[in-house]
Design brief:
about 400 residues, Urease, subunit C, domain 1, eight-stranded mixed β-sheet, TIM Barrel, 18 strands, binds zinc ion
């Protein structure tokens, strides 16, 4: 049965003028009509959001399905978790993401088998969550960071082999960890390798990994905090750089020149003292705090500059889940406009994912993926926090209406 969403204010596309009392007509999961004056067929079901702003549903650029910071475990402990608990947490995490307005996301590393299993289960309707774009297995060098969510691959040959295997298992993206090295397996060793610009892969390895991925039609994302590896990757035509928290002016110019997307700058970790790095036990370590403060300073200076220069920023929640609103709020806090923050959770990410023809805005022919908010995010970005209605492909997600989206609010 077709539906019509009624709004107080309709944001069809974050870059265009919103439409007062706009409506969205939905049939078979797609938008078939949109605007203030639109033909509404008889006997449609009305989704009454006439007290709310209606806008395109959100897209999360960078997620790990089974990890969630709210359990306050060191990241390594997530990998030691038994498989059943991990999967139950993954199901809860994705449910909370959907309930907070995210209907599409890209997952960039997890335990073996998790990403494809969730992607398939959601597509078949056996699990509830956003539609997923997956990397199957994230790849790192053997001395590289984050062993708990990625798989070793060293040298050009092994990288080609693993990337081809990922492709044959249904990967949508290649994910590499190209900065940060570690010496040892303890959590502190991981932290010691984090937030540095030390190259973990050589230029030849990065070139080979990007070339073989592109030959297969796979775009490439790389965890890169900064430094030479991040620049080599952009010179080789990488599609998205993840984090980039040690940005320089030269890097901003290279983002512009290469057209790489800047994804998941992890703003809440750096800038929200209540939930970010400043709230973790590791904040007591002077050397770590200094490192965070350095990254914070460079991000605050160069990220807004990158947006002004035309770099497409895509926001992600990484391991926090259900908090994309916090990322958008922090981006605005750095001086970026509300419009650009909305693009960073809708159209920019849709383009990055190659899905600009089906998600990110509410034009005719797009998936009917919409959310309703109590307030206008173009004036107050923080109203993204309270999502009153979520629709994914024309279906209203029931729990949101009964308030279950609050499960993750503090
Ligand atoms: Zn990540």
């Amino acid at each position: 049965m077709s539906k019509v969403i009624k709004s107080k204010l309709l944001i069809v596309h974050p870059g265009r003028e919103p439409v007062p009392q706009g409506m969205v007509v939905v049939d078979k999961g797609r938008v078939v009509g949109v605007g203030a004056e639109v033909d509404v067929p008889p006997n449609v079901e009305v989704v009454d959001c006439s007290a709310y702003t209606v806008m395109p549903a959100l897209i999360d650029s960078h997620v790990h399905i089974t990890i969630n910071n709210r359990f306050h475990l060191p990241l390594s402990a997530h990998f030691d978790l038994d498989a059943t608990t991990a999967v139950l947490r993954g199901a809860m995490n994705l449910r909370s993401d959907l309930d907070t307005g995210v209907t599409t996301m890209r997952t960039l590393g997890d335990r073996p088998g998790v990403e494809k299993a969730f992607q398939g289960a959601i597509d078949r309707g056996e699990a509830v969550g956003p539609r997923l774009k997956v990397c199957v297995r994230a790849l790192r060098p053997r001395h590289g960071t984050a062993p708990f969510l990625c798989f070793p691959a060293d040298g050009e040959e092994e990288l080609r082999l693993k990337i081809r295997e990922n492709f044959s298992r249904g990967a949508d993206w290649t994910k590499l960890f190209i900065t940060n090295v570690r010496r040892g397996d303890a959590f502190e060793d991981y932290i010691r390798g984090d937030l540095t610009d030390v190259a973990a892969y050589s230029k030849r390895e990065i070139d080979a990994a990007i070339a073989v991925s592109h030959d297969l039609g796979l775009p490439v994302a790389a965890h890169a905090i900064g430094g030479p590896a991040m620049r080599w990757a952009m010179e080789a035509g990488i599609d998205s750089i993840e984090h980039a928290n040690l940005l320089t002016e030269e890097d901003v110019a290279l983002f512009v020149k290469s057209g790489a997307y800047l994804s998941d700058p992890n703003l809440q970790l750096f800038f929200d003292d209540e939930v970010g790095f400043a709230s973790f036990d590791t904040w007591a370590w002077d050397w770590w705090r200094e490192r965070v403060e350095r990254a914070r300073e460079l991000t605050a200076k160069y990220l807004p500059e990158a947006v002004r220069a035309g770099v497409k920023v895509c926001l992600g929640t990484d391991s926090t889940h259900a908090t994309l609103w916090r990322e958008a709020k922090e981006l605005v806090g750095l001086g970026v406009s509300e419009v650009d923050a909305l693009k960073a959770v809708t159209t920019n990410t849709a383009e990055m994912l190659g899905m600009a023809d089906c998600v990110g805005h509410l034009g005719v022919g797009m998936f009917a993926d919409a959310i309703a908010l109590d307030g206008n995010p173009l004036e107050d970005i923080a109203c993204l926090r309270q999502v009153e209605m979520v629709m994914k492909e024309g279906e209203v997600i029931a729990d949101v209406l009964s308030g279950a989206s609050d499960i993750f609010s503090d």
